[in-house]
Design a protein that fits this description.
Elements (H helix, E strand, L loop, with lengths): L4 H10 L4 H14 L3 H7 L5 H11 L14 H4 L4 H7 L1 E7 L2 E6 L5 H11 L3 E5 L2 H7 L7 H8 L13 H16 L2 E8 L3 E8 L2 E9 L3 H11 L11 E9 L2 E12 L2 E10 L14 H11 L4 E6 L6 H12 L6 E5 L10 E4 L8 H9 L5 E4 L5 H12 L3 E6 L7 H7 L4 H7 E13 L4 E7 H4 L5 H8 L4 E7 L10 E12 L2 H8 L4 H10 L5 H10 L5 H12 L1
Parallel strand pairs: 2-3, 10-14, 10-15, 11-12, 11-13, 13-14
Antiparallel strand pairs: 1-2, 4-5, 4-9, 5-6, 7-8, 8-9, 15-18, 16-17
């Protein structure tokens, strides 16, 4: 944070941000424990670039948007990657006036002196936002295939050992690169003649590496050793976990190994040891839906359900709500399978079937722990559903996830689990269904045109008119593909949501055992925005693409 919150507040006031918005930002800043600068960007009060320009003017120094300049490799390599990441600085230009440095903290004089000493040239400091600099760190990345080919030039021992130097280094590089690429999973897949390594980035698998088959056994053995698994077992599935230090953070990694036709396949799930401070705005929720959520979480009892397929962001949404609710006055206890992120001051229980610690048994024990708020990782069976509903009915706020295709389907699903309709109607306050779509990369975003006739094949005409008007050629955005986004045109993900506020009308339909279509229609008539419409709105705002919305909602739009 280069400027204190007070000065950022003054800058926002000067550009016309009203006092109510500023007050809301200050409350959000305190709750989320972030700077006012970060809060203003997260709440879309101002863009990162525009606020950066204001801060640069306040500091009386030039501003640079790194995403808009081409930086030669000899220039950015003036500063080693480790130093650049530590000090949030990047060399982006070199001419007769000296070396141009983009700095998130221009007051860092020690680094400037180091560069002067190293190059013998003057320094011309520019202010750049921390987000812009972090995104630009992609420039340092060497081609992973070339990196590994060079590494494996080293003679690999014929006998597999735990200190097999090139393999040890290779696993470290692989995990570090996956972490920096914001990958959620690493897939190591043996083929007949080689090994394919893939990263899941923004929900999509990408081939990143191909290695000779002779390295497979050593790689798998090293992973087994780190995960404390049996190295002599090759015909049975094994699950384990390990922890690695990556970029000053403890990274928890879940390991899954299964035998397939050509050897053992490994999938590594990367989990930060601490939950990143996501706000509901970060996740992409609209103001209307936010209001519904806030009304529900301010109650002292009842049930909040998050629904969607695996990997749709359900747990992240619940964690974001728990972050808001997490105060010293509340006892929050969770039961999860697995505990994906640690949340400070929250009591988190890991399901363990070997000790008969199931969701149902754990939930019974939690109720004897004087909880205010309970998070049940997933409602999978009638027993868990019954206990959760009873807890919500007896003065507890219960949050949980359930696997259904949309928000309305969650209600009949609970009834199918042998919960009496009047109990479902009495306890469930809100249901959030969601999917994750990829964001268009800001570094290579360009304008494009879509034909109205093409949209009509997949979207209701009423929705198209609502967000794009009546023109035949509709203006949208797309990513060209660049080094910043691995030439995909996308960087990061955002949620598309539909939120059912269980009103008196919906409660009546539940008690009548109405099917999900009837409930869904009633919710829409009361103002619910469907996931498809929420996706269209994000397309209209230039956040994502039509193809992305269709990719994740194709079941609903079929």
């Amino acid at each position: 944070m280069v400027l204190p919150n007070e000065q950022v507040n003054d800058l926002l006031t000067k550009v016309g941000v009203d006092q109510k918005t500023l007050n809301d930002l200050i409350i959000f800043t305190d709750n989320a424990k972030i700077s006012l600068q970060e809060a203003a960007i997260e709440k879309n009060v101002i863009t990162d670039e525009k606020l950066g320009m204001l801060i640069a003017a306040s500091l009386k120094m030039p501003f640079i948007s790194l995403s808009k300049v081409s930086i030669p490799e000899p220039v950015f390599r003036i500063i080693p990657e480790r130093i650049a990441r530590k000090y949030k600085v990047l060399a982006f230009g070199r001419d007769g006036t000296g070396i141009k440095l983009a700095m998130a903290n221009p007051k860092e004089t020690q680094l400037q002196e180091m560069v002067i000493k190293k190059t013998g040239q003057k320094i011309v400091p520019y202010y750049a936002t921390e987000r812009d600099i972090e995104n630009s760190m992609q420039l340092y990345k060497k081609n992973l295939q070339e990196l590994f080919d060079d590494l494996l030039q080293t003679e690999v021992p014929t006998k597999t050992t735990s200190d097999d130097a090139p393999i040890v280094k290779m696993i470290e590089i692989l995990v570090t690169r996956a972490y920096q690429d914001k990958a959620s999973d690493i897939h190591i897949e043996p083929q007949e003649k080689n090994i394919i390594i893939r990263f899941r980035i923004d929900g999509i698998l990408h081939d990143v590496l191909s290695l000779e088959k002779r390295h497979h056994d050593r790689i798998v053995t090293r992973i087994k050793i780190l995960s404390k698994l049996r190295t002599d077992e090759h015909l049975s599935p094994q699950d384990g976990k390990m922890r690695m230090q990556v970029d000053d953070e403890n990274l928890d990694i879940r390991t899954s190994i299964i035998p397939i036709a050509d050897g053992e396949k490994v999938v590594l799930r990367l989990l930060s040891s601490h939950f990143r401070q996501f706000s509901l705005q970060d996740l992409g929720m609209s103001d209307t839906d936010l209001k519904k959520i806030n009304n529900a979480i301010n109650k002292s009892y009842g049930m909040i359900l998050s629904t969607g397929p695996t990997g749709s962001g359900k747990t992240t949404l619940i964690y974001s709500i728990l972050k808001i609710l997490n105060t010293r006055q509340k006892n929050i206890t969770t039961i999860e399978d697995p505990v994906e992120y640690r949340i400070k001051a929250v009591n988190q229980i890991q399901v363990n079937t070997k000790t008969k610690l199931t969701f149902a048994n754990g939930l019974r024990s939690i109720l004897r722990q004087d909880p205010d708020i309970i998070f049940v990782g997933e409602i999978r069976d009638s027993e868990t559903a019954g206990i959760a509903v009873n807890a919500a009915l007896t003065g507890h706020l219960v949050l949980s996830t359930i696997h259904t295709t949309n928000a309305a389907t969650a209600l009949p699903r609970l009834i199918d689990m042998e919960i009496e309709p009047f109990l479902v109607a009495s306890t469930v306050d809100i249901i959030v269904a969601q999917r994750l779509v990829r964001r268009i990369c800001e570094s290579c975003k360009i304008k494009a045109l879509a034909k109205r006739s093409d949209l009509l094949k997949n979207f209701p005409e009423k929705s198209i008119t609502k967000y794009f008007g009546s023109q035949d050629n509709i203006k949208v955005m797309q990513g060209q593909g660049c080094k910043m986004c691995h030439y995909t045109g996308f960087s990061g993900r955002i949620g598309i949501f539909e939120v059912i506020d269980v009103s008196n009308t919906v409660r009546k339909l539940i008690t009548q055992k109405s099917d999900s279509d009837v409930i869904n229609k009633a919710a829409i008539e009361e103002g619910m925005t469907t996931m498809l419409e929420d996706g269209l709105e994000k397309v209209a705002k230039g956040v994502t693409t039509i193809s992305e919305v269709l990719r994740v909602t194709k079941v609903e739009s079929a």
